[in-house]
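Shipment paperwork, digital attachment
Item: protein structure file
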Amino acid sequence: MKADQSQLFDTHVHLDRLGPDQDSATALAEAGRAGVGAWLVPGVRRQHWPDLLSLAGAPRIWAAPGLHPMMAGQWGAAAEVELAELLQRPECVAVGEIGLDGLLDVPFQLQEPAFRGQLRLAVAAGKPVLIHCRRAWGELLAILRQEQAGRVGGILHGFGGSPRIASEALELGFVIAFGGPLTYPNARKRVEVLRTLPVEAIVLETDAPDLPPHPHRKEPNRPEWLPLIARRVAEIRGWSLAETARITTANARRVLNLQKEWGQN
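Attachment content:
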């Protein structure tokens, strides 16, 4: 696959769990025809980490193994050793998706140790992190500072916070990912955040098969729909679609340390 700055980069797509109506090979081919040329696949459960590594063997697909907050109970010594070993592999370019979630029926007493432990591994390995957060921004930002996450930075996935929270995250070296919810008619807060961000802080994601963009909100999300999100970003920022692809792809490559690997994977 030829490296092309005009191709879109999906920084958060669950290619390992697209569902029975989408196999990953077909989904990738359709996304490629739509102008998507790079993908980052985050982890959710420990037992699925091998699937991420299998997918990351293909051109310009990278893995971000980690434990979602809903799976914090899987964190422990064995998971820590396994994740540390995975982070030595070049195709594992980040740790994710990790964080805190105040809407889950998982106590913070489980979520926080898993989050801190994975942050420490990421910092030690020099790998950025993919952050999941709902209703816990104060606690999460404090932990990011305490664990020196600014040394590696990363991406705030599915961001629904305020411009103030976005600004604090940017100071720690994070960028903001925009996905399907940006295209919804009631997406006022996300639109406000996008308008206020510096150019270098914006990346794209689908989160497929979750959070489909308008007009597909009742369907499983598909990787080929990333251009719908890119078009909305372009509209809000006053960019062309080509500018949006160039800017957001360059931002993704920078935060994920993929400047050299872009033409090699």
